[in-house]
Amino acid sequence: NLTCRTIVLIVFSFFQRLVEAAEDAHLKHEFDADLQYEYFNAVLINERDEEGNFLELGKEFILVPNDHFNNLPVNISLSDVQVPTNMYNKDPAIVNGVFWSESLNKVFVDNFDRDPSLIWQYFGSAKGFFRQYPGIKWEPDENGVIAFDCRNRKWYIQAATSPKDVVILVDVSGSMKGLRLTIAKQTVSSILDTLGDDDFFNIIAYNEELHYVEPCLNGTLVQADRANKEHFREHLNKLFAKGIGMLDIALNEAFNILSDFNHTGQGSICSQAIMLITDGAVDTYDTIFAKYNWPDRKVRMFTYLIGREAAFADNLKWMACANKGFFTQISTLADVQENVMEYLHVLSRPKVIDQEHDVVWTEAYIDSTLADDQGLVLMTTVAMPVFSKQNETRSKGILLGVVGTDVPVKELLKAIPKYKLGIHGYAFAITNNGYILTHPELRPLVRKLFVHLFYAFIVIIFT
């Protein structure tokens, strides 16, 4: 326990310095819609046009192979910034965020000087950009796309929000045929991307009747682990649109599931939400909300209007606002990811208002870029949220982003006092979800091994 506490305190000190630097920089910064700032774009650095001139946002960025980073060309003096392909890299919100977060460079370097065993350090912004230290060049795929969005990563989601129970309601009435149903399915898939092992969920399609996407799991919620999410995604393809949408039946079912599941003591025992994906609602269904959710409003309502028409938008907006949620409209497939992300900002508000800077330990994973002699390096990511301290936004609970760093599991094991284990003793690590993080007899069979970790819980046994 003393060892674990020491590790946590060391990591916390690094993060506290990053968080304080980010929050102070944002506090001093005044948003400027006309700000022009040439930053190091991780995709464009060192790129030249046909005439040999550096591209805009692609200035010269010195990269030198470094043994600590498996001889990858990096810049240990500066960080650089990755912006998702579907976002404009000179959007005023991006440019302003990149500008004030430049102050993190000094802290990144100082942390690395204090502890050379550190690997990647980074700041994932709520606006979508990703500042990474040491700076490294990012290469698009064969289609010229970089799909990475830091806000979709588990370290970001776990740090930004609390564990949650979610019921997703999908309208499959006749009006949802064609592109609308396609967008609805993609919206559900994107919501699943934002759920982790500490979350619980179910998906219900509705028209005149209720159709559980997985019929074997009626009336309950399941853990949002990788296997369950993939299983539900496969079943999404079986949905087709027909009939009339009876939203009242679906809402009653959703509230009953959340209530019953909460009373069992299972699930996240924290936040609860209903995600409604539809092309319209003919009523506000206030009697249902009055029966199940008012006045406490413990279940948040997030409504996603599919399609370009806005005839029933007012009802969906009312439902979301009356139940501490959020409304958004998704017109095309390109709109899905950015609009789904909006609910995370709402769920993060209580943590921001209460200034809960909790350190979270995410799942462990194989980092192929830092493979050792055996070809496998097991890593875990540690993260902490960053909040706005500006007076005009503090009461609204504005999340600025999340800072994180990657920690090799072997570095955690080095901190264990082996003299306390005895001759035949050994150490192993498990997670709060029961997954083995590391064990002397653990033999990864595939390169793409994923081991789930939320809190680093080191267990030392004596044999």
TrEMBL record:
Positions of the VWFA domain: 165-347
The name this protein goes by in its record: Calcium voltage-gated channel auxiliary subunit alpha2delta 3
SUPFAM superfamilies attached to this UniProt entry: vWA-like
Keywords: Calcium, Calcium channel, Calcium transport, Glycoprotein, Ion channel, Ion transport, Membrane, Signal, Transmembrane, Transmembrane helix, Transport, Voltage-gated channel
Sequence similarity: Belongs to the calcium channel subunit alpha-2/delta family.
Pfam families: VWA_3, VWA_N
Lineage: Eukaryota, Metazoa, Chordata, Craniata, Vertebrata
One GO cellular component term: voltage-gated calcium channel complex
Gene Ontology MF terms in the entry: voltage-gated calcium channel activity
